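Continuing from the previous page of notes. For each protein in this section, the sequence appears first, followed by its structure tokens. Read the first protein now.
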Amino acid sequence: MDIQRYACDLHCHTTRSDGNDSPIELIEHAAEVGVQVVAITDHDIPPPLWEEIDGREVDLRVFAGRRGVQVVLGYEFSCDTYVDDVHILGYNLDWNHPQLIEEVARARSSKTEAYRRLCEVLTSKGLAVDFEKDVLEYVDENNEKKYRNPDEVERKHIFEAMARKGYAPSWQKAKLLVRDDPELNIKRRKIDPLAAIDLIKACGGTAVLAHPLLIDEVIHYPDGRSLTRAEYIARLILRGLDGMEACYPYSKTSYKGSWSDAQAEAYIRQEYKGKVKFFTGGSDYHADGRKGIANPRHLGEAGISLEQFVAISEYLVGR
């Protein structure tokens, strides 16, 4: 398949969260398709600094450099217990900062509890998903049986199980089914987005709002408060949000709007020019094609140019 790719993809996932490429495989794939800069931004877990290859611990950035790829280390914070898809990307953080270590442990614990409960509620509604057999136990692309650590489960793994069992035509449709049913939309305690920005700053990092148009146009809280998307984002900017993801494959997500990807990018750049320091782009790559997912997001299909990356690199990797 002939895909137009950007030189820099600043939003990618690996097997450390809900992606299907290992960090090493992600780098090798980037080298194969000509993506020169790739960011590892897994959900609620710090990026790997070292990986084992042939029994040896290898510095991931050195490994990537030898293949002509620069790795940017990031972290995708899942934010706001009551609003879906509020994700803030943290780049250039102090990965050993005590506050970050504490947040990683808290997020891990809240996920495991909520996702186990989601499976129980799905089953009670006639959509039988067993946390142990359908989520923790899985078959990889080599048809080998594997087992996940309960603390490594992501909601997408449950959506994939729902699709596999025929409750939805795809994991994306399963996500919508769960999101739009109040009984199924089990809330896990997520970090407040303002607190996430504060934490990123405390760790010496840079805060970027991922896929802003996935946030609902009007947000309703259980206490009766309502905010428009614009008002919500304005609060993040006021708190110190540095950048915003402009180039993104909305057409391959749960995006509810009618704009094309190009129209969405143009709107974000026009609306927030001068309000944030810079714009980024990324595919939100998960290597879904390895699982036979139709119309998967491809590495580099959204991103920024090398020239654009160089101009903002001090924010993403430091000086």
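Done with the first. The second protein uses the same format. Note its length before scrolling.
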Amino acid sequence: MTADERVVETDDVRPPGERGRTVISDRVVERIVARAAEETAGSGGLDRSVLGVGLPGRRAARTDVRVHGKVVTAKVAVSVAYPLPVRDVARRVREGVRERVEALTGLTVRQVDIDVAALERPTGRTVS
């Protein structure tokens, strides 16, 4: 019997409700949110710092995600490229996060709060 001739016995296939369950941790959803936020044009991660002293390198967008059953609420802190319209970039980040989380997890995103923590000059320096 070749691979194309294999027969699947329908008696052995269990209904979807009996196959088990999938659990997606809050941390996984946080990473999806951070990645989606950074991939939005005009937004990015934040400078690294300790006690207000800048450090070399960047970190991902800061996120705080809560998953209650199948509902997600998220807070995201990002930087916005100067001089792009902050409101437009925030709207695109919100939409991108919602679409990506719902597509990858099947969860419903109820709310995405955006905190613009910094403006980035074209040279990569932060505007305070």
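What the second structure shows: The two ends are 70 Å apart (CA to CA). The chain has one domain: 25-127. We return to this in next week's lecture.
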